[in-house]
Amino acid sequence: MSDVVQTRIRDFIVENFLFGDDSQPLPGDLSLIESDMVDSTGILELVGFLEEGFGLTIADADIVPANLDSIDRIAAFIERKKAA
């Protein structure tokens, strides 16, 4: 998993869901949903970012916590999509 990919995802989350407040560390395995950092609308924003920023097409069936619930899971999902 690329550090560059994780950094881009982390930066997007800090900017859009934490309003630029990066004073607290954001662990890669932190659940974005359970921590109430991202809601359903936020997931749609995240999907838009991933599609545009990484040149992906994300199917509705791919929009599940197993793919999008943490920075680590998102980065792994991107790697799988790019490899396919």
Automatic annotation (TrEMBL):
Designated name of the protein: Acyl carrier protein
Stored InterPro entries: ACP-like_sf, PP-bd_ACP
Organism superkingdom: Bacteria
Residue ranges constituting the Carrier domain according to the UniProt record: 3-82
Taxonomy of the source species: Bacteria, Pseudomonadati, Pseudomonadota, Alphaproteobacteria, Hyphomicrobiales
Source organism of this protein record: Nitratireductor rhodophyticola
